[in-house]
Design a protein that fits this description.
The complex is a heterotrimer of chains A (268), B (324) and C (294). Chain A is built from 9 helices and 9 strands. The longest helix of chain A has 19 residues. The radius of gyration of chain A is 18 Å and the shape is globular. Chain A has 268 residues and is an alpha/beta fold. Chain B folds into 2 domains: 94 residues; 208 residues, MetI-like (MetI-like fold, Orthogonal Bundle). Chain B is flat. Helices cover 73% and strands 0% of the residues of chain C. Chain C has 12 helices and no strands. Classes of the chains: A alpha/beta (268), B mainly alpha (324), C mainly alpha (294). At the A-C interface, strand 5 and helix 4 of A face helix 9 and helix 10 of C.
Chain lengths: 268, 324, 294
């Protein structure tokens, strides 16, 4: 596999650098420690999953990196700059839990949205959008409206939209959570293949152990009250993956390790 | 994503509110002072003081609006805004010597209100108590009854509903002279206009309300072998209550408008609409405004009463629960 | 409030039946209401008359209490056909006069409402200070202020279309503002956050997200607004000495006891109202036709 040009650039600057980050809601009345002293470094090209029970801070951490929320202490750097500057520089794409497609735009119109915001020419937007629609396997559906697509297709469209302006970092907040298992498996496979081709940095929040193990190069297990990292597990699986891998002993061992870490986090 | 330190809370909010109210008090003192009185010529001192007050007003309202926290601050902002508007209205109409015909000062309106209490009370009774209430009750009952009939007989739904919708297209202005011809000049013709106006909104809302109960609950009643009447009384009518109230509230405003405008067309010597139109022809603007104030206050009060009533009866509905 | 379902093929029969019932009832009511007047004025008190004579007389009176349907139809027809379009005897002339004021007022009121709602949504101060008053105005009989507006504008020298348009304007303005504020705020948090991640400016967020999301809220308010504007324009024609317009026709009809004239004007104004709301509804279908929740 030829190395993606993304990796050869700035491979020494971590894509995401979180140092002693804390987020406390309601500090005066009833403090809630959503994040407590988080230390995490993500190198470019990694696929990192954040996993943990509800309230462990995984979504909060993702939102902090995406400049949707602000930490109360510590530091967060994205591509070496603050999340705010990274956002203005359009350094990342964010995929929400729900597709959030605009019902008044066609699929093509929706994928063009970030490109239009960036001010690109109409012809450019059109060409780039069509390219990405093809990459997620939705060719032929450009003129359809969101409500004419199934849940899985809508989520694929929202991924195409997040990738359309070629951000170096992709952040995904339980993107496949609302889908049935069969669709989910298929989309996991497609995401894997996309990542193998392009080697973007991906930060992925999930509830599902199997999904985390299947997709990631590194798994970060978190636990709540206060939100903190319990363990970081490096994946021993090969880079090229296929769904059949899920029955292999390596996979099962990793899943077991994750499960143990989750249980530990729960007991503390 | 705004920073939290631009939104003061708690005690600093109280302090801001205090400052703002204090500045209002200062303004009123200024108004009463010799600088603002009718006789003193309006010179630079006056106008710079007025400009200073306007800056104070804008600053105060912006500060108040920025306060997070207790809901009372939000309504305080609106109230203070209203008070400042009335204040500058008074100040400018006196200072610029605006002719009474064009725009009377608030103080004159208050005086007129006070002087004409007996007249206005009679007008209130004629319009609101007789025409509006009668018409509103009749119109809403009629709309409700027809809705029940339509619900019972689907034939009527397909045939009657489109035709009933035509009643909503007839401008009330047109109905008023006909009503006068049939029912005479007195309040009955106004009530008739109100009935026509309130009928269709009530009909549509009741129908929507009757459909509002969920399939699951209706199947439950079916499993109890409850007949149509019982299901209606125990399930469908209670479910319809929020819709009924929304129509009652809209209809209250429509009824007031209908009665007042119908009186523009002719009325015995009393009534709020009559007062407004005849005094306007006589250019007695303070009294016209006073009658308008009475109508506006009536409208708001009736609405507030209906809201309070709704809160008691439909306490279970998410939209009411969410307000607590 | 729910919208009524549009009549479909299966409802043609019930509608026709009810319509026929209404027409029959109308004729019956005509005979009943006109009878006293007919007996008094038309029929000869001396020579005997039959029921047929009575019915005939009541259905063709000059100044009936309730005109028969055919009388109204005949009057409408003659006014539309027998007179040139710019003659005050032709109802379409009055329709044009009233319609013009309504449309001008409607356009101004909608524009003002749009601008103000955008300002309110983007300014916390306006939102807290001004919006409650706009909402409160909906429970107040705004039309009662019409005579005041007419007096003020009259003494400032405005006449003709302007005062009527101003009244129509502020009647349209309130529902449009309230509905647009609701609509501009309707996008969910997930959608506004998404625009935030694209580093979209406030203008871009307004143009690409909030305005399209607000359209389904705007159109019902436009329908209400234009109907209210029509009523306002007609009411405004009353005090101004009633020269032209449907409201003026109604007034002169009621002054001179010309019942049929009143009813013709009434039917025309209802038709005008239907046409105007129909146009708005058509535009709504064209603009929003493709939309459905995902």
């Amino acid at each position: 596999m030829t190395q993606s040009p993304l990796l050869s650039q700035a491979s020494t600057v971590p894509a995401v650098q979180v140092t002693q980050a804390s987020l406390i809601y309601n500090p005066l009345q009833a403090p809630v420690h959503a994040l407590a002293d988080i230390d995490l470094s993500i190198a470019p090209g990694e696929f990192v999953s954040l996993i943990g029970p509800s309230g462990c801070g995984k979504t909060t951490l993702l939102r902090v990196i995406a400049d949707l929320e602000h930490i109360t202490s510590g530091s967060v750097l994205v591509n070496g700059v603050s999340p705010h500057e990274a956002r203005l520089a359009r350094a990342y794409g964010y995929v929400f839990q729900a597709p959030a497609l605009f019902p008044w735009r066609t699929v093509l119109g929706n994928v063009k949205l970030p490109l239009q915001i960036q001010g690109r020419s109409s012809a450019e937007c059109d060409a780039i959008a069509r390219q990405h629609i093809e990459r997620v396997g939705l060719s032929g559906f450009e003129t359809k409206y969101p409500w004419q697509l199934s849940g899985g297709m809508q989520q694929r469209a929202s991924i195409a939209r997040a990738l359309s302006f070629e951000p170096r970092i992709l952040m995904m907040d339980e993107p496949f959570g609302a889908l049935d298992e069969i669709t989910r498996d298929r989309l996991n496979e497609q995401l894997q293949q996309l990542w193998q081709r392009e080697r973007r940095t991906v930060v992925f929040v999930t509830h599902s152990i199997a999904e985390a193990v299947y997709l990631s190069t590194r798994i970060v297990v978190m636990s709540p009250r206060p939100g903190r990292i319990v363990r970081v597990i490096e994946s021993t699986l090969p880079d090229e993956r296929h769904l059949g891998l899920r029955d292999s002993p390596e996979f099962v061992a990793l899943a077991h390790a994750v499960r143990e870490a989750l249980a530990d986090g729960h007991d503390e | 994503m705004t920073q939290s330190n631009s939104h003061p809370t708690g005690s600093s909010g109280l302090m801001t509110a205090g400052l703002v109210l204090g500045s209002l008090a200062l303004a009123f003192v200024f108004l009463g002072s010799s600088l603002a009185s009718n006789e003193t010529p309006k010179d630079v001192l006056f106008w710079s003081a007025a400009a200073g007050l306007s800056f104070l007003a804008v600053w105060g309202i912006r500060r108040l609006a920025a306060i997070e926290g207790h809901a009372a601050f939000a309504s305080l902002t609106a109230t203070v805004f209203g008070l400042w508007i009335v204040y500058f209205w008074q100040l400018l109409t006196v200072a610029l010597d605006v002719p009474r015909v064009l725009l009377p000062a608030p103080w004159l309106i208050m005086q007129s209100l006070w002087e004409h209490v007996p007249t206005l009370t009679r007008d209130f009774f004629q319009t609101v108590v007789k025409a509006v209430v009668t018409g509103w009750v009749l119109g809403c009952s009629l709309g409700f009854g027809v809705a029940l009939a339509i619900d019972r007989l689907p034939f009527l739904q397909r045939g009657l509903l489109p035709i009933a919708s035509l009643t909503s297209t007839i401008p009330l202005v047109g109905v008023a002279p006909i009503a006068v011809m049939w029912f005479g000049f007195d309040w009955q013709s106004k009530a008739a206009v109100v009935v026509l106006m309130t009928f269709f909104p009530m009909l549509v809302s009741t129908l929507a309300g009757l459909q509002a109960s969920n399939r699951l609950e209706r199947e439950l009643m079916h499993s109890y072998a409850a007949n149509y009447g019982r299901t209606l009384w125990s399930l469908r009518l209670p479910s319809a209550v929020p819709f009924l109230f929304s129509a009652l509230k809209v209809n209250a405003t429509l009824a007031l408008i209908g009665a007042i405008v119908a009186e523009f067309f002719g009325s015995p010597t009393s009534g709020l609409g009559f007062r407004i139109s005849t005094e306007a022809t006589r250019m007695n603007m303070p009294l016209v405004w006073a009658a308008v104030v009475v109508s506006a206050v009536t409208g708001s009060l009736v609405y507030a009463i209906l809201v309070a009533w709704e809160r008691r009866i439909a306490f279970w509905h998410p939209s009411i629960r969410g307000q607590r | 409030m729910a919208t009524t379902s549009k009549p479909s093929v299966s409802s043609i029969f019930p509608i026709t039946v009810i319509l026929l019932a209404v027409v029959v009832a109308w004729y019956g009511l005509t005979v009943y209401l006109n009878a006293p007047g007919a007996i008094e004025r038309v029929l000869d008190a001396l020579s005997p008359w039959t029921w047929q004579d009575l019915v005939n007389a009541t259905l063709n009176m000059q100044r009936p209490v309730l005109p028969a349907p055919h009388q109204v139809a005949a009057d409408l027809w003659t006014s539309l056909v027998d007179w040139p379009l710019d003659s005050p005897r032709n109802l379409l002339y009055h329709v044009a006069v009233t319609g013009e004021s309504t449309l001008v007022g409607f356009a101004m009121g909608t524009a003002l409402g749009l601008v103000l709602s955008i300002c309110i949504v983007h300014s916390r101060t306006l939102d807290r200070a001004l919006l409650p008053w706009v909402v409160a105005s909906q429970s107040v009989p705004v039309l009662a202020i019409a005579p005041i507006v007419l007096v003020i504008l009259g003494s400032m020298g405005f006449s003709g279309v302007a005062p009527k348009a101003v009244i129509a304007m502020y009647l349209c303005f309130f529902p449009v503002t309230v509905a647009m504020v609701q609509g501009l705020r309707s996008p969910q948090v997930i959608e506004t956050e998404m625009m935030h991640t694209y580093a979209a400016s406030r203008w871009q967020a307004l143009w690409m997200l909030r305005l399209p999301a607000a359209l389904p809220f705007l159109f019902p308010a436009l329908r209400v607004g234009i109907a209210a504007g029509l009523v306002g324009a007609m009411v405004a024609e009353l005090p101004t000495g009633a020269q032209a317009g449907l409201g003026a026709r109604l007034l002169t009809g009621s002054y001179y006891g010309q019942t049929i004239q009143i009813w013709s004007a009434l039917v025309m104004s209802a038709l005008l109202g239907l046409t105007l709301t129909g146009i708005v509804a058509t535009i709504e279908t064209l603009v929003l036709g493709n939309r459905r929740q995902a």
